[in-house]
Protein 1
Amino acid sequence: MAAANGEKESGRHGVVAVIREADRFLVIRRSEFVKAPNLLCFPGGGIEPGEDFETALHRELMEELSMTVTFREHLWTSVTRWGTKLEWMACDRIPGSTPVPSPAEVAEVMWMHEAELLGRDDLLGSIPDFFAAVQTGVVRLQ
């Protein structure tokens, strides 16, 4: 099956947690041990067979950051340049839940403004795509 951009879809399906507090987004630096190492992105990962989006989101945040969140809303569905379908989910951190990176998956945790993120050259490609969708009104952040 061809993706919208003409590339073949990989068949992969993932979730992305969009967590914003005081106009800063929770961002991770991927560890050297995962695909696309050392790049910045929002937390998330693959949806396993039988999981719904919310279950996958909670599992991925526990695996990557030992963090619990509440799901607020589904923001957007996109297909990456490499053919992975992503479900972008707005979440809120449960008070007192502090992100603790799992070194196997996450090298660093940061809170960054949109402008800080977009000024970087070490972003996973889906991040600029997400903010372009926000800028054009396709995605509405509350």
Protein 2
Amino acid sequence: MAELLITDQRLKPIAAKVLRGERLSQEDGVALYRSPDILAVGWLANHVREKRHGDVTYFNVNRHINPTNVCVAHCKLCAFGRDPNAPGAYTFALEEIYQRAEQGVREGATEFHMVGGLHPDLPFEYFLDMIRGLKRRCPTVHLKAFTMVEVGYFARIAKLSIKETLQKMKDAGVDSLPGGGAEIFHPRVRKLICDHKVSGQMWLSIARQAHELGLHSNATMLYGHVETEEERVDHLLKLRELQDQTHGFVTFIPLAFHPDNTALSHIPKPTGYDDLRNIAVSRLLLDNFAHIKAYWIMLSPAIAQIALRFGANDLDGTVVEEKIYHDAGAVTSEFTSRADLERFIRAAGRVPVERDTLYNPVDRSKMPPIPPPTRPDLVSLTLNV
């Protein structure tokens, strides 16, 4: 690695800590966010990334399934949720979900990523039946399903404790939880952008209880809206503290806010500069997280490639069908092939390694041949519930 040249003197003591392998403080995190020397911040993050992972960059073959976009929350940050009778509202019948999943298996998916709206009429049992049916039909596929926000909602409508809700999900076949809904933990921010969701404290509590039951999860942070640098650092350090205690987080994903079609559409989109800084600062502060993901759907493949030199060691997966961020104005493709992901990684000077959800390498030579991906038209079926 080339020698570090620092133009911002405030970074020098932070760089010394990083090179000694010492934990960074809240003050260090704020300084990293405010430093104009983005290249030095990126160099330090890349140092940590290469020390952990060398040139390896992970990706997976996955499929996103969003069972419904009907949602009671009406968060200002969201362009995905709809009222039940609003134009564009949908709820998939279970058989349609199974069709999408079985198509994913034919495309070689090793993971289904499932999140959706907080539907006012669907019972908890609908989601448990969905998981049971998927596990029967696709027993080898990892089911990463339901954010902490959804878990909190399920517990409320089913009149169960969080632990009981998580246990029922696990018994039905949920293998791990995604990291969405974390947004920014600080109550000031949540009141402004997502006041109908679980609190930041409750999100962390649900994650803790999931980890205690043996369910790993991811974690996220939504940046680029009304939060301050201090609130971003507070968010990251709360995740770091919980990870110290449970070791249950697999991957951290910084998520760029897409304002189009939301109640916050007047806010400018984060720039590529913002994206790279958030990747880098996350890698430096989250010293107990093994993996930092550059989610190409939100960043664009081009920025995601650069992020592989700013601390990220994962690009996510093939995705196939992504609704949440595309409803909010994302202009990236909803599908990238396994071959293209490998090409993106190699072009960035890294070594692609296909993984499963828990970062075990996938050996395709030991799996049945995968037919070419197809995209059959599927008509949404609205349930009368």
Protein 3
Amino acid sequence: MLTVEQVLASNKANIDTLLGLTSKAFEGVEKIVELNLSASKAALADSSENTKSMLSVKDAQELMALQSSLLQPLAEKTAAYSRHLFEIASGSTAELSKTFEGQAAEAQKSFMGLVDTATQNAPAGSESAVAMMKTAVTAATTALETVQKAVKQATEVAETNFKAATASAVDSVKSTAKKR
């Protein structure tokens, strides 16, 4: 049976976890806002320079060359922004996942303690029901661990694919710009 102290300690731990998660979420939002401000400032500066360059163009051929030369840095900056945004999201997700895994492990440990206490106090003749309950808990634990591993693997595959796609897009723009 749970005591009042155990319930209070559990609630306090849950509140501490919630506050920690909220703090981590705000840190991620702050990083995204900083990234967007930085990208906006850079885009404004680039736009100003590009406008000045276009106003100094004397013929159509020079305009085409200028447009071609502006395309590659834009693609590289877009790819860098996407990579940085992905890193922020991945970092925040990893921290949140680590916290959730810790909480899940603690909850599982507490639940197993409760199951053990219940089985010790079970009436005589209920051994088969207790064994069945322990088997179900073990199966649920194994399933949860399998899902966590699958999510980690899927995240790693998505990150690898994102990096490959970004590199491919930048290389494609570079080769297109060189052909012009």
